Each structure stands twice: as C-alpha cells, then as structure tokens.
Amino acid sequence: MMKRIGRLLLLTTAFLPGIAAAHGEAMHVFGTVAALDNAEIRVLTIEGKTVSIHTVAETKYRNRGKSGGGNVPKVGDRVAVDVTEKDGKLMATEIQFSSFAKQQKQ
Amino acid sequence: MTKGVWVVLAITMLVVIGNVALLWHVLQSGFSAREQPSELEVMFARQLRSLAMPEAQKQMKNPVPASEEVLAEARIHFADHCANCHGNDGSGSTLIGQNFHPRTPDLKKIETQSFSDGELFYMISNGIRFTGMPAWGKGRPEPDLDSWKLVHFIRHLPSLTSEELAEMEKYNPVSQVAREEQERIDRFLQGEVLDPESPAHHH
Predict the structure, then answer these.
(1) In chain B, what residues touch A60 (CB-CB under 8 Å)?
(2) Under DSSP, is residue B150 helix (H, G, I), strand (E, B) or coil?
(3) ipTM above 0.95, yes or no
(4) In this predicted model, what pLDDT tens digit does every residue of B95-104 receive, in sequence order?
(5) Does residue B200 belong to the interface with chain A, where contact is any CB pair within 8 Å?
C-alpha cells in the first residue's frame, strides 16, 4: 500500500511542473492598436513598447466596448490580446477591444 | 519446417519489427504531446476506434427528436462541460485543446460531421482512449439522453450564430483567477489606467 502511494506521489510530483509550465505560456498584452493588417497587429503597450503579434484565421475578436464599433479593432482602440508564444513569435488567440477614445468624446 | 510454420515465423518477425519501430519512435519523441501524431498514427488510431465500436451502436438512431428546446439545453450543456477543450464553436481552438495529443479536432469539419449519430453518441458516452476525451455516459445508451442531445448540437455547430455564441459564454466555467483577469481586462477596456507590471501579463 505504502509503495503504491509512493508511486502515486512520484507521478504527481513529476507531472505538476509540466502542467504549470504549459499554462504559463498564455499571457495578455494590454495596450492601444498602433497598426494592424490581416496578418499582424501592432500594439503600443501600457509600458510604452510596441509589440507585434501575429493573427491567424482562428484568432477570435470580441468587442467589449459599450459604444458599438465593428467586429475587429481599429487603430487607436484599446486591446487586451491573449497571446501564446510559438517559435519565438507571439500569436494572438483572442483579441478583446473597445473604442475607448470614441467613448471619451461622447 | 512446413509452410504454416514459416508463415507464423514471418508474422511474428513482422510484429517484433513493428513493435521495435514503435518503441524507437516513442523513445525518439520523448513521449511528448507537443508533436502532432503522424498520418500513420492517425489512420491506425481511427481504424482501431472504428473497429472497437459495436456495429449495433454505430447504427443507433437518435431517440431524442430535434427541437429548439433540445438545442438550447444542449448548447448550455456543451458550454458548461465541453467548451473548455472544444471551444464554444467546436473548433478546438482552446489552450487545452491545442495542447492535447492528438489536438482537439474541429467538430464542424467533415471528419466529425460524417460520423453517424450512433458513432458520435458512442464517443461522447464512452470517451476515446489515449486522447483527452473522457467518458461522459451513464453506461447504457437508453437513459443517456443528455449525450443524445449533444449529438444534435454537434450537428448544429456549423450553423451556430453569434448570438448563440454570446449566450454560451455566460455558461463557460471560469476559475477565480480567470474571473479576476477578465475583470481587469474589462476595467482597462473601459478606460482605467493599469499599472505597467510587465509587457505581458501571465494568466
């Protein structure tokens, strides 16, 4: 019985860091859209850096603004981009955005 | 030696060589889930899966008549139980789904839609070994109406509307950490100034 529990503990200990590492690869980039086209979005982050993030057909877009807007962000919109790193490149899995500048004018 | 003995020896040799090749392949990949399965593995696994399904269950017809109410119920069920891996739209484009071995398939595509209702039910009910698909069923097909309703929903996935997707999001399981992160995102998108902790914020 003790041997079995020992094996279970060993297996659990061996697998847990992998699960944590896999989850740690997803992250958010907060900022404002500086430029975008069909393959890439450039974000001026809240730290003042410009980050290029690749977009693909599977990238999801969610307009979280309260003042309308389209299905994709525009230059100047605030974005929170859910990214994963693949082959040294940032890939967008989901882009949440709102036209905050537009809201301020209203 | 007789011809029969030679045939048995040849088959045994082929099995041994096959097993050695398989073992070598597994050792080379480090038993990792990172790589996509090879076409040979996919073909072999699909054949095995098909062979393992009882013919009578493959031929089963959905005992639940399709209706708007059934679809609505299954939609919520799918959002709550399945979307973590499959995504609300069934595309499999989720963090978990894209890190499985094999990757979670796009349920809208012909590879899934071409299964019979009985086959889809069997996979939901019994799960699929060596994938992330668990067995959700109750052991016998007759009382497992929830899984039959999910079969209707899977058929509906290719024509899912944006309104349906928006409704499903309300039913997705969310952890406390994810909820707090989403609240942070919402505050930022509504104009709050966030502390620039780091260029990229981990979940």
Answers:
(1) 93
(2) helix
(3) no
(4) 889 888 889 9
(5) yes
